[in-house]
Write a structure and sequence with these properties.
alpha+beta; Beta-Lactamase; 5-stranded antiparallel β-sheet; 5 strands; single chain
Amino acid sequence: MSRLDNLNKILRNLQSESPGVEASALISEDGLMLASSLPQDLEETRVAGMTATLLNLGTRAASELRRGEVQEVIVRGEQGYAVMISAGRGVLLLVLANETAKLGLIFFDMREAIKGIKNIL
């Protein structure tokens, strides 16, 4: 299996094993899509760019407000959450979850997925 296949497998497992997770993606800090399991109606290029921008703004805000290093960025909307976490080495993990998702479990599952991602990258 290629690295891309292995990364996609981790993303698919995250969706299938974490209740409430609807989609996920692995994005470079530069805003480039590395791997994704997104719905077809979402444009990967736009999702990647927005995710990188939001994490960058969160990092700047945490610094300016003296909150230390940013741990995650969460966007909450009427239909659920977009959660972004650094996956190390300039890579971000994005998860889209529905409004009934348990964030604690999602964070746990994301961190477990990041362990596998780091082994591949």
